[in-house]
Write a structure and sequence with these properties.
The protein has 293 residues and is of the alpha+beta class. The chain is built from ten helices and ten strands. Helix content is 43%, strand content 23%.
């Protein structure tokens, strides 16, 4: 259930109906992320690269790689990281992509060379008319450094959504019945700063709600999408209840943004339901019915 999301805005198509001929112009691509994993026990990683290929019978499809240009995140998890080695890895992968289109063979070569210091994510598919632009978009999404102004604006947008959520819950009379700032720490590791904004349990289901502003950047959405599946699995194991997370996003988003569409798609793949702030009265009514308030 999407709480009326598709009634209001069509994120996937930018608000316009697309013809089959337009869709056929797009090329089928695959990509996976390269992650720097300095400590296999802690299993902490930093996304450092993205590899994109275009499956083609004659081997002539698009193939390229992008690496981060900002190594501060890597140095945070590993002050002794060999940055020159990592930069050389990008050149090595690019030189091999033309000859080695088999992802498994390429990964085995990397594993042999770096002893699991570099790992690959699962492969995902996407459609794009211009692969060169698409891989740049992915690189910016996964390891681009957000500007300070954008972060401040994102905080402001999130607070606006939170106010709308609180108003709806108060009006429906369920505000005092909800859990607030539900910590992820019991299901992850000590010190985890993630806290879901609101939640409640009904029967064998735990329903969570989190404000996610996408107006200025999609970092919060991407981070939530990457972490939630593992957190949800742990919640289910430890509570014997099925978690359902709804991300409440801004009403007036740029429907034509490819970054926005990609981020929303990532949340959907992570089994995160999406609602817009304008749907909060309807959501609060459902919560009241669940809690019989």
């Amino acid at each position: 259930m999407r709480f009326g999301l598709h009634r209001e805005i069509r994120f996937r198509t930018g608000g316009k109906r697309r013809s089959w001929s337009k869709m056929s112009d797009k090329r089928q691509l695959e990509f996976f992320l390269l992650r720097y994993v300095p400590d296999a026990v802690k299993d902490e990683f930093v996304n450092i690269g993205v590899v994109m290929t275009e499956p083609a019978a004659n081997g002539s499809g698009f193939a390229d790689v992008r690496f981060t240009r900002d190594w501060r995140r890597v140095r945070c998890v590993d002050p002794d990281a060999d940055i020159e080695m990592l930069e050389a890895l990008e050149r090595e992968i690019r030189s091999q992509l033309g000859a080695v289109r088999d992802r498994g063979l390429l990964l085995r070569k990397m594993e042999d060379s770096f002893s699991n210091l570099i790992r690959a994510s699962s492969t995902k598919g996407c459609l794009a008319e211009e692969p060169e632009k698409e891989i740049d978009i992915l690189a910016n999404l996964y390891f681009g450094a957000p500007k300070r102004i954008a972060r401040q604006a994102a905080v402001s947008g999130r607070l606006h959504i939170l106010r709308r959520m609180r108003e709806a819950f108060e009006t429906s009379g369920v505000w005092t019945l909800l859990m607030k700032t539900v910590p992820a720490e019991p299901y992850t590791k000590p010190g985890d700063p993630l806290k879901f904004d609101f939640g409640y349990r009904v029967g064998e289901t735990i329903k969570l709600f989190h404000a996610v502003s996408l107006k200025t950047n999609v970092d919060l959405a991407m981070g939530l999408a990457s972490r939630y599946p593992k957190i949800a699995s742990r919640i289910a194991q430890m509570t014997n209840a099925r978690p359902l997370l709804t991300a409440v996003v801004d009403d007036d988003l740029n429907r034509g943004s490819s970054e926005l569409q990609f981020a929303l798609g990532e949340m959907e793949e992570a089994q995160i339901q999406i609602a817009i702030a304008a749907d909060m009265p309807d959501i609060a009514t459902r919560v009241k019915r669940d809690l019989r308030a």
